[in-house]
Amino acid sequence: NYMQVNEFYTANAKLYHDMNHHFDAVYHMLSEGDQQQAKEYIESLRAPRHNAGIKVQSGINVLDAILYEINTRAEEKGVIFKVDCMMLPIDLQIEKKDICSLFANLLENALEASKKEISLQIKRANRTLFVIVKNDYAVSPIKEKGRWLTHKKEKAKHGWGTQIVEQIARKYDGGVEYDTENGVFTTYVMLSEKE
What pTM was computed for the model? Predict the structure, then answer.
């Protein structure tokens, strides 16, 4: 296990180092006012993709980008991705990096487990964000000592998603609950916006 964890951190360190060079290049292009070149550079780093059919406008650009990406990958896998999202305010008091981590991890986990369908519901009331993610599953989820376990072989490199989601929920005085009834895995998340 120590060797697996060490290899994992070494691989991540290399990726982080390489990404810093890419960020520097994009930052320079944007500083020079060359937005088109920056967009083209970012696109060159991405994996090839086709146009996804989803047209969700959540009001939060980073969230829309994640929904677009997950929908593209769901189409490739033959999974239906349904989204019910109200328009969110631009000044939503949840950090963009937390929105990115929250939804990327929730939806990555759902897509990984799903065989036919994923649904996402996003609502906001009284400065509280409510998120519900549902997915069917091919392999029954396993819970041990209060933690959901990954089915992937390299355990040290995977299984972090739910921990990250729970950490973000705690940061915003919220919570996370799970349900596995009728062959559907449901994740309920509640976040309170920062003052």
Answer: 0.67
